[in-house]
Amino acid sequence: MKKILSALLAVLLLFSFAGCSNGGDKPTEKAKVTFWHTLTDHDEEMVEEIVKAFNASQDKWEVVQQTQTLEGFEAKVYSSVTEGTGPSLVWLYPNTAQDYVNAGLALDFGKYFKDADYKDRVSEGVYAASTEFADGKLHAIVCTVTGSIMFYNGTLLKKYNIDKDAIKTWDDLLAACKTVVDGEKAAGTPLKGFGPDSVDTLGIVTLQQLGLNFINPDKTVTDWTDQKFVDWINFWKDAEAGGYFQLVDQEGYHSGPFGSWQYFSYMGSSAGMNYITPQARGDEPAFEIVCGPVPQIAGGKEYAEITTRALVGFTKDEATDEGAAEFAKFFTKAENNVKFVQKYSAATPFKDVESSEEYKDYFTNSVAQQALAGMMPITGTRISVAGASACKEAMIQTLKTIIVSGADVVETLKAQQEVANNGLKDAQ
Q1: Among 30, 221, 293, 411, which has the minimal tally of Cβ within 10 Å of its Cβ?
Q2: Burial class, 363, CB count within 10 angstroms (exposed 0-12 / middle 13-18 / buried 19+)
Q3: What is the mean pLDDT of the segment spanning 340-364?
């Protein structure tokens, strides 16, 4: 009997060790979550820190962050995702998800998020931007709020006794640029007066200020040949011909040339603050950056654009989808977001972050955030519809073709308006 029991015990032990060897010795393979973004420098470093901390916090998923080039990024994301070879997450605009909803490729964070993770932490407007899709689901997790503001060379403002608060309209801006540009030219230190960092933002903001919707509720673009818009484009053409405005700079964003005294002012995202390095000029020390609101159309509708950036996900498999959602939760935790928005020079969409002492100190010392906050009562965001990216590209081509290449204003507007409408129609 003892021999039989001993034999049974030996068999049981053998199976027990075999089970440990097959399941315990071999580590469980982590689901890989690929995260694409175009962030660089200190922003990229912050992402790397958050990714590293997330990966160390659990053993089910591994996030791999990959920095992509900005040019053609949205097109690259679209082609790779629709082909099944793309990332799990991207850092883009919330309305990016709209192009993937109808195809069933947009990740629904709502399957994994509780209200306390996101909905209860943001405003109704931010949550609406995260869910205003055809299916009404949570396809975007907004992490930052930025917007276009004006940047001025403080030394030149003082030198020519210009009050930045007196620059309220585009006419005011042109007058200030004429004063500075003509004065500096006479002194043998020529420069340009003003340049925007985003051609599409310039055109879209102008349309809204003129009372013309960029995209109408019926998913068509407004009449771009409206005389008010034609007049404004001609106003810009004259300012560019005089050397006061410049639509496109070789550097791309105008921020670098602005820092090196090549421009008196430029309009750019509040997030661009960290990319401006004011330099000295001759005996003059590095200038102070002065920020202000975006100019308005005289007698028009007051309007400025804010931009939200979000984590947008794409469906893969259950394990990867859950991992992407869990990383989004981790990325937006208060202790991570408060550090990220400071690196990114952005405002936070989260109420708990906004009320923290660390964020309050940051806001108090940021002239960019104060300028953005001052415009909040008149700000809006772009409508979220499939095909909006085609309209944006059409606006860019419109202004570049007319102002840079010298094409006919009305004929170009007609042609690009048709391109934009076809893009909207094809996307529905």
Answers
A1: 411
A2: middle
A3: 95
